[in-house]
Structures are given as C-alpha cells and as structure tokens.
Design brief:
The protein is α+β, with helices and mostly antiparallel strands. It has two domains: 97 residues, Orthogonal Bundle (Peroxidase, domain 1), CATH 1.10.520; 75 residues, Glutaredoxin (3-Layer(aba) Sandwich), CATH 3.40.30. Helices cover 60% and strands 14% of the residues. It contains eight helices and four strands; from the N terminus they run H-H-H-H-H-H-E-H-E-E-E-H. The chain has a four-stranded mixed β-sheet with strand order 2-1-3-4, with helices on both faces. The longest helix is centred in the N-terminal third of the chain and has 17 residues. The radius of gyration is 21 Å and the shape is elongated. The model has no long low-confidence stretch (mean pLDDT 89).
C-alpha cells in the first residue's frame, strides 16, 4: 500500500470515528485551495527551512475553525515530513468518503456537448449498472472522438467511442489474421 493510501485511510478512520467525514473533506479542499492561491503560504508550508514547531503553530491558527481531523492530519504530515503527499492524499480521501457514501465518480467523455436530459439518463443507467450507487458525472468533450463515449471510474476505462470500437475491431482482425 502506498504512503498516500495509508495516510488517506488513517484520516478516513479518524474522521469517520468523529463523524466528520464530509466536513473534513471540505476543510482539506479549502486548505489546498489556499495553498494554490498563496505563494507565501505554499513556501511556508512546503519549505524545508521553516521549523516543524512553527508550522504546527501556524496549522493551529489556520485550522482553528476546522475539524480536529483536519488539524491533526496536517500536523501528522508535518511531523513525518510528508507534506508533499498532501494533495494526493486529499484526492484518495475524497474517493474513500464517496465510496462510503455510496457514490462513484465517473468521467464521461463525449464528442459533443449533451443535453441535461441525456446526461440524467446516462447517470441513471450507470447507477443501475453500478449496483444502485449514486453516480457523480464529470463530463468532458473531446472533439477528436468521432462518436460514442468513453467512461472512466475507479481504475476502469470503458471505451465505447467509434474510434475505440474500430481499434478493437482492427485488433481482432489482426489476431485472426484477417488483415
């Protein structure tokens, strides 16, 4: 198991025990956004020249209104010199929270923009296929697709695009020596 997964799972366990899963996720996303927006904060937080004690005191002030899980998690990363995994750990933690809530995030790529009605039908059908889990669609348009769609969720990629189908047909024909 990677360090990112280990830290994310530990955070998930602590936040679940305190019944603050979603609030902790919101806090951490807010903290990461602040890091992106402020060069000074980023340098302070990631900088090796700043003593750990000073960083811990800053975390106490910066997370005063946040959950205990958020504050403790950031301090553990500082104490263990693992600040560089913060953003990846937050993404993994988000996956764990969504999974716990029965949600699955699906990236849905099409050749053209689809109507809200069509997207709702896709979301509903995917929910049925994925054992009734709530589907959170992240839609993208790829003008290089001729038609169809590509789905990504978890570690799975399903290519239902025309290009993907043609590529699959080509591979099948090559395997059979038809070409």
């Amino acid at each position: 198991m990677s360090a990112v997964s280990t830290y994310a799972q530990a955070l998930f366990g602590a936040a679940r025990e305190r019944e603050e899963l979603q609030e902790t996720l919101d806090n951490l996303e807010e903290f990461v956004d602040a890091l992106h927006e402020s060069e000074e904060l980023r340098s302070f937080f990631y900088g090796a020249q700043i003593p750990e004690g000073q960083k811990r005191r800053a975390i106490d002030v910066l997370t005063e209104e946040m959950t205990a899980s958020t504050t403790n998690f950031l301090k553990v990363l500082i104490d263990n010199g693992r600040m560089e995994i913060l953003e990846e750990a937050v993404v993994r933690y988000e996956d764990l929270v969504k999974e716990h809530q029965g949600k699955v995030e699906v990236e849905f790529v099409t050749a053209v923009e689809l109507s809200d009605e069509t997207l709702e039908r896709v979301r509903s059908r995917l929910g049925e296929i994925l054992d009734g889990r709530e589907v959170v669609l992240e839609t993208n348009v790829d003008s290089h697709l001729v038609g169809g769609a590509v789905f990504r969720f978890g570690g799975t990629r399903i290519d239902g695009s025309v290009r993907g189908r043609l590529q699959g047909l080509r591979e099948t024909m090559l395997e059979r020596g038809s070409v």
